[in-house]
Specification:
Elements (H helix, E strand, L loop, with lengths): L5 E8 L6 E8 L3 H12 L6 E2 L1 E6 H14 L12 E3 L3 H15 L3 E3 L7 E2 L3 H12 L2 H4 L6
Antiparallel strand pairs: 1-2, 1-4, 2-5, 3-7, 4-6
Amino acid sequence: MADITLRLLYLMDNPHGGNSVKVGSSGLSKYQTRIGNYQQGNGPDYLVTWPICYIGEQSVINRLEERIKDKLEQDRLESRLGEWYDNHTAETISPKIEAIISGNRFKVKKVDSKFLPIAYEIGWKTQKKMMEHYQKPSILSDFLIG
C-alpha cells in the first residue's frame, strides 16, 4: 500500500455567533494541535467544535480547498479572512462543498459520524481512533489517486 498522508477539511461555525463559517484544513495526524489553538484563542467559555469534516489524501484536500475558494469567491469575507465564508453555517455550506467534490470527482469522503463532531475536549482520543480507522488498507485504498 502506498504511503498516503491524510488531511481533513473541517467546517467551523463562527464561535462568536455570527452567520459565517470557517473552511480550513489540517493534517489528520496533527489536527488536535490546530483545534487546540482555536480553543486557546476562544477561551474557556466556548467549546470549539468541527461538526462536519471531510477526509482525503493531502494533495486532493489542498486542491478541494482551493476549488472551494474559487467557486464560493463571492461569499468569502475580506482577503485577510480568506477561509471564512459569510452568510453560511457548516450545515448550509456543506451541500455546496459536496457538489464541488462530486463535480470534480475528488476522492474525498465525509468523516464518519461516529467521529463527529470533533471537539477540543475529545480531540486527542478521537484522533487516535480516526487514525486507526482511516489507515486500514481497505479504507485507505479509496483515497488512492489514479
